[in-house]
């Protein structure tokens, strides 16, 4: 039996759909090139000049050919991807990079960059779907619906803790919503790796627990 949240890692409303412009804004044509809904793991091709994301990546990346948190923040802020919340949170950018930073450089290479924008487009689709009053922010009950739609099954107590952590004045802005999604994805992935029998229970050594929770 899968533990709560097991389905949340791979499921995302809007899979295979292209992003379009709307209340949240976005780069030209309303989306980042070649990106659909979030499918969990993503096998990106090798960088090539004819890749629709390659030119965009090289325009953002520094001289080292990678994207750090400050460069990612400028990219998301200038593109209008975050909508009404400006600038895009630097802390959210840091944890997004940490989520995908498999080589532990603190930066993103091209494949990681593509994977991130696949996830971001899926999360934006989900955000817009549940922002029912088109305010550009979510209310707590809308956030709860969005989390449930991604396959996470959380207790009311856990849900309330998330609301308190990510709301500002009783509302959730897009970059805080992204931070929430990153945390849920990363912590669920770490839990799942240790729950080989999918029993919903794992044993953590203290140091391992700190590593898992502090990495994002």
From TrEMBL:
The keyword Hydrolase does not apply. Transmembrane segments: none annotated. Residues 118-153 form the EF-hand domain. InterPro entries: EF-hand-dom_pair, EF_Hand_1_Ca_BS, EF_hand_dom. GO terms for molecular function: calcium ion binding. GO terms for cellular component: cytoplasm; endomembrane system. Keywords: Calcium, Cytoplasm, Membrane, Metal-binding, Repeat. It is found in: Cytoplasm; Endomembrane system. It comes from the Eukaryota. Its main location: cytoplasm. SMART domains: EFh (SM00054). The keyword Magnesium does not apply. This is EF-hand domain-containing protein.
């Amino acid at each position: 039996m899968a533990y709560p949240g097991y389905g949340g890692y791979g499921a995302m409303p809007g899979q295979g759909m292209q992003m379009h412009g709307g209340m949240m804004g976005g780069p030209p044509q309303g989306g980042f090139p070649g990106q659909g809904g979030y499918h969990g793991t993503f096998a990106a091709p090798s960088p090539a000049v004819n890749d629709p994301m390659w030119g965009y990546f090289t325009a953002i990346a520094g001289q080292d050919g990678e994207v750090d948190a400050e460069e990612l923040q400028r990219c998301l802020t200038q593109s209008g991807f975050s909508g009404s919340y400006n600038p895009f949170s630097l802390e959210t950018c840091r944890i997004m990079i940490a989520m995908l930073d498999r080589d532990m450089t603190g930066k993103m290479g091209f494949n990681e960059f593509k994977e991130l924008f696949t996830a971001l487009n899926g999360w934006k689709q989900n955000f817009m779907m549940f922002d029912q009053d088109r305010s550009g922010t979510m209310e707590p009950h809308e956030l709860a619906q969005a989390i449930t739609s991604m396959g996470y099954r959380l207790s009311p107590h856990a849900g309330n803790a998330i609301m308190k952590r990510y709301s500002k004045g009783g509302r959730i802005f897009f970059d805080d919503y992204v931070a929430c999604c990153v945390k849920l994805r990363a912590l669920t992935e770490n839990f799942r790796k240790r729950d080989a029998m999918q029993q919903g229970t794992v044993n953590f050594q203290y140091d391992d627990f700190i590593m898992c929770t502090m990495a994002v």
